[in-house]
Design a protein that fits this description.
Immunoglobulin-like, zinc ion binding, 8-stranded mixed β-sheet, alpha/beta, Gelsolin-like_dom_sf, single chain, 4 domains, 7-stranded mixed β-sheet, Rossmann fold, Four Helix Bundle (Hemerythrin (Met), subunit A), 20 helices, COPII coat Sec23p-Sfb3p heterodimer component, SNARE binding
Length: 730
């Protein structure tokens, strides 16, 4: 009856019985929801219930959906909602007798919603919300201003390749527009020899100059589209226009898709300084790494925020490929708000290498991965628990409904939970219900359910804690707070939280432990390490070398990241390749801690970070081991030679990494000890001292010192209170 934890995962598997118990642990209390999460091949698929004349059965009071934890009574004529405990009457045409012993319906095997923790319904017209579901419409809005000329060939080539590889779902429609200081639309009807171009010269006065042929079947109009994609790089190769009316282009996409929803995939290479939504270059490097840097994290003006909300209402998500020249400010905080509000993606590629396969891999994933649009999600909890704050990239029309103009397999949402005042006695139930349209045009309802035990002691709550999920919720929460609080304040709050968790564990679970001993709870013993890594990351560290665009981009990506992805951000795996090559079982990967002291000069290491893969070659590595790794010459090693399909060991390792980096293509780098600069690698070795932040052992010592101070302070307060009591009495 419980859903797969890939879909919904709590920070605490034993729910604290009341709010005071939450305070007594200091642990984050909430859940991470990834509604369309990609399943492992061995996981059971989510059952699909075909469309019928009946709507999914719901509780008449709380509107929760029927699930395995609902209880049938009165011989099957009624059921008790597990969420609000309301007794509902079963409609006559849905009635079925129940088994006297088990209390289950006799036709239970015909109702997956009564058997499985996750289920998906095809839903009738009443769930369409006034818009007929259609296969997804894509609008590729391509920046053709002067800065864009270098990447036009590749971007247009990727679209052509996706069509030839049948990446688009049957029935989907595709449109293409280009923009500089004006907007250019194209009639792509299959009956034409070449696409007809129509220009809107005034980027302030936006309208759509054509209806027929704007969106077409990419396979029926393949020849017309391919010719246009070949022509665009040549048409604008020597474009003297340096400005790009991005705000006007986004407005045009809204007008084109407002009646059915869809997805805008846009490139942008320059700050929008013409048309609607013009921006100023507000970049001030003197703010970098200072308390006032947070002013660069908020959008400039309100044009893009308003437009983003309109796009959400129309069900249009926005993916933006930001490809500025090196050291160029493009204001990710402002133009990227369209992606943040519509649950789209931002790809930030400054000084983009046009020879890279990164754009092809990432764009192909965007189109091929499971995704939907026009989604609305709500989380319901059983009596005694309610939702508080919601964290992620989305919009909220009410205090409880999450609006997702687009939803992808990688999209994760954090929900903070609170007690509503009553003490919990029975099990707790949580249900996530998401109404959405699939990319092939089916309106569906996906429901995930969780049943969790209640913990009545600090020890039981700690026993069921999940450090990785706690970190994901904390990351989303602290990124949300970054527009209000300085990076230093947020970093200090993380320290205080860590101290509180360890202090409370010591006080309430292991009070007999020696004061000289730092006690780490077994289930969250990695939390101090992960928090230390969080503080050293681009997200929080005070570093004047990190530009505002890079920091905001990282914040936006991490804010919607799943649990596995977040861990890779903060503590990537480092594989001991020299040991892995020598063992017979190649499915096991011997790991090493992320510290330079742990790296053997005679070894080879593979480090998988979010954006890069490093192959580190020790300067004393035996030649036979280097040859076994597929490197013919230590001094001449380069990524192109190493990553060859005939180099089976490392090629297989690389493919394994690609499967876990499905959302994007990381950069592959070889670092030879003593020959190559190791500064990029040093940033990843988070257990060492870096960016003026303590090493992990020193951080633990500092936490221990703070805990002893707190314990001493509490002992002193207890002594003073006792003395006051006896003085008053006598």
């Amino acid at each position: 009856g419980n859903c797969n934890p890939r879909f919904m995962r709590p920070t605490l598997r034993d729910i604290p019985s009341d709010s005071s118990l939450v305070q007594d642990t200091g642990l984050p209390f909430g859940i991470i929801i990834q509604p369309l999460a990609q399943l492992h091949p061995e996981d059971a698929k989510v059952p699909l219930i075909p469309l019928s004349t009946d709507s999914p059965v719901r509780c008449n009071r709380c509107k929760g959906y029927i699930n395995p934890w609902c209880q049938y009574i009165d011989a099957g004529r009624k059921f008790i909602c597990n969420l609000c405990e309301f007794t509902n009457i079963v409609p006559e045409h849905q009635f079925c007798p129940v088994d006297v012993v088990s209390g289950r319906r006799m036709d239970m095997d015909q109702h997956p919603e009564l058997m499985y923790g996750s289920v998906e319904f095809q839903v009738p017209e009443e769930y369409w919300l006034g818009v007929q579901p259609r296969p997804l419409h894509y609008m590729f809005a391509i920046d053709v201003s002067r800065n864009a000329t270098g990447m036009l060939h590749q971007f247009c080539g990727v679209i052509k390749e996706m069509i030839s590889s049948n990446c688009f779902q049957p029935g989907t429609k595709l449109g293409i527009m280009t923009f500089d200081n004006s907007l250019h639309f194209y009639n792509l009807q299959s009956t034409l020899d070449t696409a007809n171009m129509m220009v809107v010269p005034d980027s302030e006065d936006v309208f759509i100059p054509l209806l027929e042929g704007l969106f077409v079947d990419p396979y029926e109009s393949r020849n017309v589209i391919n010719k246009l994609l070949d022509q665009i790089p040549n048409m604008f190769q020597s474009n003297p226009v340096s400005t790009a009316a991005f705000g006007s282009a986004a407005r045009a996409v809204l007008l084109a898709l407002k009646n059915q929803g869809g997805k805008m995939i846009s490139t942008l290479t320059t700050l929008p300084t013409i048309g609607q939504g013009t921006l100023k270059d507000r970049n001030d490097t003197s703010l970098y790494g200072r308390e006032t840097e947070k002013s660069l994290f908020t959008p400039q003006g309100n044009f893009y925020t308003k437009l983003g909300n309109e796009l959400v209402e129309a069900g249009v998500s926005v993916d933006i490929w930001l490809v500025p020249p090196a050291n160029y400010y493009i204001d990710v905080a402002t133009v990227g708000v369209l992606s943040a509000l519509t649950a789209g993606e931002i790809h930030y590629l400054p000084n983009f290498d046009i020879s890279s396969k990164q754009m092809y891999h990432n764009l192909r994933h965007t189109v091929q991965a499971e995704h939907g649009y026009r989604a609305k999600l709500r989380v319901r909890c059983s009596n005694g628990i309610t939702t508080a704050d919601h964290y992620g990239n989305f919009s909220m029309s009410t205090a409880t409904d999450i609006d997702l103009a687009g939803i992808q397999a990688d999209t994760a949402i954090g929900v903070e939970l609170v007690h509503d005042g009553s003490k919990l006695i029975k099990d707790v139930y949580i249900q996530s219900a998401m109404l959405y349209t699939t990319s092939n045009g089916e309106r569906r309802l996906r429901v995930h359910n969780l049943k969790l035990a209640v913990g009545t002691t600090v020890a039981s709550v700690f026993k069921g804690a999940d450090a990785d999920t706690c970190l994901n919720l904390l990351t989303k929460k602290f990124i949300t707070l970054s527009i209000k609080k300085s990076l230093s304040d947020l970093s200090n709050e993380l320290d205080q939280l860590c101290v509180k968790v360890l202090l409370n564990y010591r006080k309430y679970v292991t009070p007999q432990a020696s004061p000289a001993q730092l006690v780490l709870p077994e289930t969250v013993k990695t939390l101090p390490l992960l928090i230390s890594s969080f503080k050293k990351s681009i997200l929080l560290r005070k570093d004047s070398s990190v530009n505002a665009d890079t920091r905001v981009y990282t914040m936006r990506r991490t804010k919607s990241a799943g649990i596995k992805e977040t861990i890779r951000w903060f503590y990537p795996p480092m594989i001991k390749v020299h040991e892995w090559l020598m063992q017979s079982d190649k499915t096991r990967y011997p790991l090493e801690r992320l510290s330079y002291e742990k790296m053997d000069p005679k070894g080879i290491y593979w480090i998988e970070t979010y954006g890069s893969i490093f192959l580190w070659l020790g300067k004393e590595t035996p030649s036979e081991l280097i040859n076994l790794a597929g490197v013919s010459d230590f001094a001449m090693a380069n990524p192109i030679d190493v990553l060859q399909e005939n180099n089976h060991p490392l090629w297989n390792l690389y493919n394994r990494s690609m499967s876990s980096h499905c959302t994007h293509l990381p950069k592959f780098q070889i670092i030879r000890q003593g020959l190559d600069l190791e500064i990029e690698l040093a940033k990843v070795l988070v257990e060492d001292e870096v960016y003026s932040q303590m090493s992990y052992p020193d951080y633990l010592c500092e936490l221990h010192r703070q805990i002893k101070l707190e314990l001493g302070r509490e002992d002193q307060q207890t002594a003073i209170s006792a003395a006051s009591y006896w003085a008053y009495r006598y």
